[in-house]
Amino acid sequence: MPFRHGILSYTRSAVVSGAPPQLIDKAVLAKLKKNCIRPDGCGNGVPTTSGWIAGRHVLDLDFSYDSNCFSSAMLASVRTDSVGVPPALRRGYRALAEDELRGHSMGDRPLSRAERMEAKERAEQREMQEIGEGRWRKISERPVLWDLEARVVLSPVDAEAAFNQLKTLFAETFDCHLERQAAGRRAVAETEVMGLKRDLQELKLDAFVSPPAAVATDEEGAPRRIGEHPEPAWAAGDPLDFMGNVFLLWLWWKCDAAEGLIEVGAGSAESKEVAIVAERMVDLECAWGVTGAVTLRGDAPTRSPEAARALQSGKMPRRIGLTLAAEGQVWRCTLQGDRLSISGLALPKPEHAPHSIREVIEERITSAILFDRTLGGLYQTFLRERLAPSWTAIRSSMSAWIGERAKGRVMASVSISR
To answer: Is residue 212 over pLDDT 60?
Structure first.
């Protein structure tokens, strides 16, 4: 439902194989209906079931053009039902069944093996009856926005289990394969289009400052060697996910060094200028795994002395609050670097009062897709710079910027103390 109203959060997936439809027609709506949620499939040994719903609410199975088709995008939701009687209650049901078999006059006599089995069966029958009545059922809904033109799916499926449910349902419904597009995987996909994929091989995380002087230890507390290039633990899923953290640092640097103005698609007919501001929050963590993590909140946390010291000590941004402006629209969000996941995305309010609910949803979907493409354009621009011969000079400039910030903050604090 959040794509229809409210604040958005999503991760990005790409359709990497199959023959996706070019538009939402009756055949697509029929496939959604065929693979809709079937709540009665949950229980009887099946703890979880998933299926499509039209998306206005969790009981909405009215798949139609008005509900699910918006220009070149499909909007629907995945509903997941799971059942599970609380363990403490299951033990209670079994204890009550055992008491019934003992009888009121039998005290606490030990039960025979056959009686214990019967008590277990009675408890399970009670559980199944209550599940059949709709008790102990947990229902969750995750909206899905499919940008057919870009072959991109936006949905809040950050957890592995949730993504696997969406991936399986997508394959069963449309015979298409979904792939997560975190920072590393997206870098591979984008550079393949640019013809720069080979340049990603053997790429390592840039060291913008000297390694921390603190002694590093392994999981058992033994000293370990700190390498020239940091190897962040958060990029263990994909060794190139660190590209997202360098992207956040690059955006931060652009905000200070280039007044937050970045040209996207330079030299093409779709060239545009994007204005960015880093604000509200920033989470940083040591890429070498030595100096820990820090979380900063406030009006301008990226300009604080704590942020300057964190960068100088070898920390890299993990999440950062951003405001983006492009093509007459302004968005506010929080961006996580390694996953390239979006949270707290506030869409701009319409300039004119809409004439219908559908018009409201259409404007929101258009804005959400434009935001995602704008953010993608920024990432493409970063990748071109990162893989260009000029990156050595850019990295030196970023390192100097970090040093100047730390030095400037120290000087400012000294002058104030005087």
So the answer is: yes
Using CA atoms, how far apart are residues 283 and 141, in angstroms rounded to an integer? 29
Tell me the mean pLDDT in the region 203-223: 72
To the question of pTM greater than 0.90 for the whole model, the response is no
Highest mean pLDDT among 48-52, 228-232, 318-322: 318-322
Task: Name the residue among 139, 162, 121, 35 with its Cα closest to residue 84.
Answer: 139
Euclidean distance between CA atoms 40 and 186, whole angstroms:
38
pLDDT at 134: 75
**Alpha carbons 241 and 337: distance in angstroms, whole number:** 8
Could you read off the pLDDT of 34-87 as tens digits, one per residue?
A: 999 988 777 666 788 899 999 999 999 999 999 999 988 999 999 999 888 888
How far apart are alpha carbons 239 and 303 in whole angstroms? 30
Q: How many CB atoms lie within 10 A of CB 83?
A: 22
Sign (positive or negative) of CA dihedral 364, 370, 375, 376: positive
Task: Count Cβ neighbours within 10 Å for each residue of 297-329 and write b for 16 or more, e otherwise.
Answer: eeeebbebeebbbbbbbbbbbbbbbbbbbbeee
Give the whole-angstrom CA distance, residue 73 versus residue 130.
Answer: 40
Which two tokens mark 18? 């199959």
One-letter amino acid at 122 equals R
Domain assignments of the chain as residue spans, ordered by start: 8-84+136-180, 87-132, 184-417
> Contact 299/393 with Cβ under 8 angstroms?
no
